[in-house]
Specification:
Distance between the termini: 19 Å
Strand order of the largest sheet: 1-2
Number of helices: 6
Largest sheet: 2 strands, antiparallel
Helix content: 25-40%
């Protein structure tokens, strides 16, 4: 398998919004429409000025959807951009901002069924302990994250070439927001890596011993009936 790559030490999320193209086209529109504004009067002039003001936003969205990760669906694009915005602009947690008296009042938690895994339910972002605080940015974020799953998504099973490194490809796309990697996994498919994953990673809380207490095992039989998208293997194997 391919070795894990450590992201660069100094990282700053790249938003890639197509600002230069959008501003350039907007200025060109302003130059072209200026004579029209002078000839058509105040009402039409104000309408055209509003159009010019909205043009950069619309153009940036259009350029971004076409250029950012062109081989992915809009669900993946917007999800990745949400992570980048969060990494760049999110408030850092602190004792001052996360006081006990600011916690959400006790009450039944709303749960939402995952579209890809109908049997699994998770709470939406709006159920966060501090998401109820009346801040416009928090409310917009909650609406965005709670409805992102409604966008269409598809899977791309194009295979990498023999000389291509999938890890390097992914890190080139998400390395600016990827967390620090503290472990070294030289071969993720080796017996040693599987043992580390079961004893010290995701499988630790499901570890059990065999009836003769000679071996340890992580069973995933309970997941065997979960539906998976076309092209993916089913769950249910034991390690």
């Amino acid at each position: 398998s391919w070795q894990i790559l450590q992201p660069p030490e100094l990282r700053w999320p790249q938003l890639e919004c197509g600002c230069c193209k959008a501003i350039g086209i907007t200025l060109l529109m302003l130059i072209v429409l200026a004579p029209v504004v002078l000839l058509q009067g105040v009402a039409v002039g104000l309408l055209l000025v509003l159009l010019v003001l909205l043009a950069p936003i619309a153009l940036m969205i259009a350029f971004w959807l076409r250029s950012f990760w062109p081989h992915n669906d809009n669900f993946t694009k917007l999800l990745m951009m949400a992570y980048r915005l969060e990494a760049r602009f999110a408030d850092k947690p602190s004792m001052k901002k996360m006081k006990v008296d600011a916690l959400r009042p006790k009450g039944p938690m709303q749960m939402r069924t995952l579209r890809v895994l109908p049997r699994i339910k998770v709470p939406p972002f709006s159920e966060d302990e501090f998401a109820h605080i009346g801040r416009f940015k928090t409310r917009v974020k909650a609406v965005f994250l709670d409805n992102l799953f409604k966008l269409p998504m598809y899977d791309n099973f194009t295979k990498f070439k023999a000389d291509e490194d999938p890890v390097a490809y992914v890190m080139a796309a998400v390395g600016d927001i990827y967390p620090d990697i503290r472990d070294s996994w030289l071969d993720k498919r080796s017996d040693e890596s599987l043992t580390r994953l079961c004893f010290f990673g995701l499988g630790a809380h499901r570890m059990e011993s065999t009836s003769d207490r000679q071996l340890f095992v992580v069973r995933t039989n309970a997941l065997a009936d979960l539906p998976v998208r076309e092209g993916f293997e089913r769950y249910g194997g034991d390690a």
